[in-house]
């Protein structure tokens, strides 16, 4: 409740308490006691209202907020490592000494534009001509950040400000309608069935062939394949359940990402038979991989190393994958391309993009839209509607200057030929 205090001057100052119970006073005094109390009551209501922001909060620098916010986040260890690098290299040097109240939409947009042009920049203090941190403002002449990296850096910074709003540090986030650089869609390479057969023939050991079959037969990521436990393979139901994932950078197995249910993937009779034969020929070895919960795992990996741990990616690429890829004349092909192949084959055979998205474990269907152009069957209704509409006669009676281009039959697999060595990579 607001109150007033009479000063020696005979004037009144209004007082009130904030949400924490601390005393606050109006910034000026009044001749009328009632007026001082009324205005103090208004200020008390403002500052104690849900969502209210402490006027002093915005005076803190973003760096001070970062020190409070960044360590308290709950995120995956792999995400944390990437964020730490982005924070250290691109975010903290630019914003650490900028007061939260001085971060405007225009300054954020300027920062994004600079990231797109140069690898490192630093904002100047007003009127000083010097960059935050004491050095002269500089623009590196090195290679600009990729659009994907710029987006990741921006999202990290924007999240910090969104959380600052929740914490009552600022009233609203300036990260609104920020124009981010647009990335060209990655070249998605997938194997034709002939290419896959050639690659499989070049595989000179059963482990590589098993991974090839799993890759194109399930679309699982590398971490899902090498983290797969035998108990998740249901031969009778012809299904694999993705419930654990091996995280390469952290070198441990973690549960399938939080917020998602277990992902069931149907498999063919042929793959089920191959898996059954594999497990019969390779007795179970207790999983000796480190699990995130630190508990002993009494299960067994489907494809363990000799030590009972997940197969090492680098050694696998060097010793098994690369020689087979070179032998099959598919230089540049990566294990992740098996996942692209799985998606493309399903779409070409009429499986809906919604179903493919679910099978791939994509968090949103937007991630699966990259494959939409492969779903050629969606245009059958259009072709049917135009069939017999007079185009055939027009084709034969063509008299214009441009020659008629005869129809070229699509390849049965709709394989897309790209330069594998120089193409842009994607990890969906």
TrEMBL record:
One of the GO BP terms on file: DNA recombination
InterPro entries membership: DNA_brk_join_enz, Integrase-like_cat_sf, Integrase_catalytic, Integrase_recombinase_N, Integrase_SAM-like_N, Tyrosine_recombinase_XerCD
An example Gene Ontology molecular-function term: DNA binding
Domain Tyr recombinase: 186-384
Pfam families linked to this entry: Phage_int_SAM_3, Phage_integrase
Matches recorded under CDD domains: INT_Rci_Hp1_C
Listed Gene3D superfamilies: 1.10.150.130, Intergrase catalytic core
Keywords, comma-separated and alphabetical: DNA integration, DNA recombination, DNA-binding
Annotated region (Disordered), positions in chain: 114-145, 392-414
Protein's UniProt keywords contain DNA-binding: yes
The family this protein is said to belong to: Belongs to the 'phage' integrase family.
Protein name in the entry: Site-specific recombinase XerD
């Amino acid at each position: 409740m607001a109150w007033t205090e009479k000063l020696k001057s005979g004037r009144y100052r209004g007082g009130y308490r904030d949400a924490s119970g601390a005393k606050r006073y109006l910034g000026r005094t009044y001749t009328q006691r009632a007026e001082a109390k009324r205005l103090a009551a208004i200020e008390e209501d403002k500052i104690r209202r849900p969502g209210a922001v402490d006027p002093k909060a915005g005076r803190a620098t973003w760096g001070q907020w970062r020190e409070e916010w960044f360590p308290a986040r709950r995120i995956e260890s792999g995400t944390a490592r990437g964020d730490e690098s982005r924070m250290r290299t691109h975010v903290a040097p630019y914003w650490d000494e900028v007061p939260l109240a001085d971060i405007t939409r225009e300054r954020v947009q300027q920062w994004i534009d600079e990231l797109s042009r140069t690898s490192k920049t630093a904002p100047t203090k007003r009127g000083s001509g010097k960059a935050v941190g004491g050095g002269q403002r500089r623009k590196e002449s090195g290679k600009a950040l990729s659009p994907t990296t710029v987006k990741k850096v921006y999202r990290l910074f924007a999240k910090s400000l969104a959380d600052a709003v929740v914490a009552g540090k600022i009233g609203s986030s300036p990260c609104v309608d920020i124009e981010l650089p647009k990335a060209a869609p990655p070249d998605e390479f997938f194997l034709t069935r002939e290419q896959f057969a050639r690659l499989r023939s070049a595989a000179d050991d059963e482990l590589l062939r098993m991974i090839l079959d799993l890759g194109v037969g399930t679309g699982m990521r590398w971490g899902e394949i090498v983290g797969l436990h035998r108990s998740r393979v249901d031969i009778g139901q012809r299904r694999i359940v993705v419930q654990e994932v091996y995280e390469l950078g952290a070198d441990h197995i973690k549960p399938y990402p939080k917020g998602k249910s277990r992902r069931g993937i149907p498999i063919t009779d042929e793959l089920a038979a191959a898996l059954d034969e594999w497990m019969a020929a390779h007795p179970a070895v207790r999983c000796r991989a480190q699990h995130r919960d630190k508990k002993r795992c009494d299960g067994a990996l489907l494809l363990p190393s000799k030590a009972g741990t997940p197969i090492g990616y680098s050694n696998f690429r060097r010793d098994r994958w690369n020689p087979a890829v070179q032998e099959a004349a598919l230089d540049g092909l990566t294990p992740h391309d098996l996942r692209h192949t799985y998606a493309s084959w399903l779409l070409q055979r009429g499986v809906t993009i919604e179903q493919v998205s679910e099978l791939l474990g994509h968090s949103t269907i937007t991630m699966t839209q990259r494959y939409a152009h492969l779903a050629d069957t969606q245009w059958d209704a259009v072709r049917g509607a135009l069939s017999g509409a007079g185009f055939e006669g027009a084709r034969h009676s063509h008299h214009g200057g441009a020659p008629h281009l005869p129809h070229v039959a699509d390849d049965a697999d709709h394989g897309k030929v790209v330069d594998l060595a120089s193409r842009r990579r994607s990890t969906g």
